[in-house]
Amino acid sequence: MQMICHLDVTDFAAWKDAFDADAEARRNAGLSVLQIWQHADSSSKASVLLDVNDRKKADDWLARSDALSSDDKGTVTSSTAYFVKSA
User: Fold this and answer.
1) b/e map of 37-72 (b: 16 or more CB within 10 Å)?
2) Contact, 45 vs 39, CB < 8 A?
3) Distance of CA 33 to the CA centre of its chain
4) Would you give per-residue pLDDT tens digits along the chain (87 residues)?
5) Is 13 exposed, middle or buried (0-12, 13-18, 19+ CB in 10 A)?
6) What does the alpha-carbon distance between residue 80 and residue 86 come to, in Å, rounded to a whole number?
7) E-assigned strands of the chain?
8) Can you tell me the distance from the alpha carbon of 25 to that of 44, in angstroms, rounded to the nearest whole number?
9) DSSP SS3 for 65
């Protein structure tokens, strides 16, 4: 199973630095980063594809103080996350 996250950020480079700093928390939640994209026409949009090892831990990571924004030093202004699997 994978998770796709779409984020609106204040600045891609600042967000990426904060996202990278949160690597240990993601590993502890059973998440592995497969791909990170900066949108071609915007420095304020990012998407991340993560491999999900444990759905419960991934849900907990998302719920932990809204993980997609609070752990990224205020660089995330909004986010969505979707769990997906191959059809």
Assistant:
1) ebeeeeeebbebebebeeeeebeebbeeeebbbebb
2) yes
3) 8
4) 999 999 999 999 998 998 898 899 899 999 999 999 999 999 999 999 999 999 999 999 888 756 556 566 788 888 899 999 999
5) exposed
6) 19
7) 2-9, 31-38, 45-52, 76-84
8) 23
9) coil
- Token pair recorded at residue 82: 């979707």
**Residues in the chain, how many?**
87
Angstrom distances, CA of residue 80 to CA of 4, 5, 39, 65, 69: 8, 6, 15, 14, 10
Token pair, residue 84, equals 């997906």
pTM of the model: 0.88
